[in-house]
Amino acid sequence: VRDNGRSIRYANIAVLKPVTLDFENHSNIFMTTANCKTLQVYYILDRIDGEVSFRNLRLEEIPKEEAEKLIAASRVEPVFFSSPVYAYTGEKTLDWGYRVAKLFIDPAKMPAKVTFDIPELGVSAEDTKVATDKHVCHTVQLASPLAKGSYKVSMKAFDAKDTEVLSDSFTLKVIDRPDYAKRLPVKSVSIDADGNTVINGKKTLMHGLYHVYSPQEAVDINYAGFNAIIAWAPTPEKYKKMLNFAADNDLYSDCVLKFISGEKLDKLMAEIKDHPSVVSWDIVDEPAIRNIKPHRLMPCVNQLRSYNTGRPLRISFSDPTAPPDYRECYDIAAVHKYPIPFGGGVKAFDQYTRLVNSYFPMPRKNSPHFTLQIWISGHDNTRRPITSDQIRTQAYVALINGIKGLWWYSFREKGSWDVRTVPGMWSTFKGLNAELFEIEKYIFGKRTILNTGNPEVIAAKFELDNSSIVIVANLSKTVQKAVLPGIAEGKGLFGAADAAKADGGVAVELPGENTKIFEVK
């Protein structure tokens, strides 16, 4: 709390799991900011069955030397440059931007100007009215349409005396936009024995986006290569309108029903149950943490199944341990976990996706999906967006671990950001979705986990007929090396260099939180 009594921030620092007939030790480390005058700590109990008590509660200030190490380990730059990292050939504009977190920056180093340059394209732009505490996005008009290739991008920040205070460089990759096949109308949907979603008889990797509200967003989402959206509206009429603009842009829709049943559900389904964009019915959001037990969902489940729409039922979970308890209520389980930056990072995604996949043994009756993170939780007051490498590696870690659908949570907080206005984030999907389109056929093949000999590096081989690919992901923030056993040759895809030959396989080196894909023999 500030000295004027207003809150600086609020965060849940711990959610404790219940224990039975015993005590358990818990502790959490958290940091305050320089303008914090009062600290308020609450212990909140709800949905308790039985008796509970806390004992020996105490706050301890960490010794200065230890605190400095912890702060250094979690520090991020308060100025974030947002450069486009992918674009399509023929485009005539580029977006670029930045974010300055005023709370964390030395006033003497406050940027007064931010510049954006691509020398090879003759592109130069600047912002001399630097805004703080919001994501800023600018558009550059190009002299000629973009040609395929890679281009070096430079971004810099200068103080009021025109002294450079920060700089960074990026690579802009200009690629051809894939010729995505027409998807709609949806006539049939099923889950096969491997957990794949089969639409109109074709195995399909769902990769969709949350929080889509307008026709223009649907246009942009289709253009960036997504194939689905999460759809919800407050009335049947508005819901149908939303599904229509999804269909107009050839997008699948997962329909969020908000745990309704009876006449209200009848009225909604009368409007939308045969809509050509619908691939699944999302019954309820995060039932476990809302204490909605499975038996309470069955009226909605039974009513939906009585319509015989031929569409699977889906439930979204925030607790990765919850899916087994609700198995009779869904065909698709989508788990949400958002551990970046301070909840374990990409390494935590590996743990969560492994856990979720373990609930779905072969042959599968249900399909494991995962909701991946493209927003920053309130724990990071810099509001630093997730990087391009983190976006790609989240997706590929999920696929390595057997997840069959990817959904990106693009929550927009008031006064914060729209994912489309963070160029480094949004343009990444042009490249990632193009990659997924090219390798999708392999993802449906035989998956074999490889032992890389390095616990920080995970890999899986995907075999289809007489050809195979290997996806390799670095879970750590530092450069890592690993050997892919049993691989005679690894041809780098999507700009990756070929793998080097090594005893027993091929050797790879990956930057922190980075993924490489190889065509292998």
Can you characterise this structure?
With about 525 residues, the protein is α/β, with parallel strands linked by helices. About 20% of the residues lie in helices and about 30% in strands. It is built from nine helices and 27 strands. It has an eight-stranded parallel beta barrel with strand order 12-13-14-15-16-17-18-19, surrounded by five helices.
Q: Top keywords for this entry?
A:
single chain; 521 residues; alpha/beta; five-stranded mixed beta sheet; 9 helices
Shape: globular
**Whole-angstrom Rg:** 24 Å
The count of helical stretches stands at: 9
Stretches with pLDDT under 50, minimum 5 residues: none
Instruction: Output the structural class.
Output: alpha/beta
* Oligomeric state as shown: single chain
Strand content: 25-35%
Proportion of helical residues: 10-25%
Strand order of the largest sheet: 12-13-14-15-16-17-18-19
Mean pLDDT: 90
Described by strand count, sense and barrel closure, the largest sheet is: 8 strands, parallel, barrel
Report the span from N to C terminus.
Answer: 60 Å
Number of strands: 27
Question: What's this, in brief?
Answer:
The protein has 521 residues and is of the alpha/beta class.
Helix and strand arrangement:
Blueprint lengths: L63 H11 L4 E4 L3 E3 L4 E8 L12 E6 L4 E5 L8 E6 L7 E10 L5 E12 L13 E3 L5 E3 L2 E3 L1 E4 L5 H9 L4 E4 L4 H13 L3 E5 L5 H11 L5 E8 L8 H13 L6 E5 L14 E5 L8 H14 L8 E7 L14 H13 L4 E5 L13 H4 L1 H16 L2 E5 L6 E8 L2 E8 L5 E6 L4 E4 L6 E3 L2 E6 L4 E6 L1
Parallel strand pairs: 2-8, 12-13, 12-19, 13-14, 14-15, 15-16, 16-17, 17-18, 18-19
Antiparallel strand pairs: 1-3, 3-6, 4-5, 4-7, 7-8, 9-10, 10-11, 20-21, 21-22, 22-27, 23-26, 24-27, 25-26
Helix pairs in contact: 3-4, 6-7, 7-9
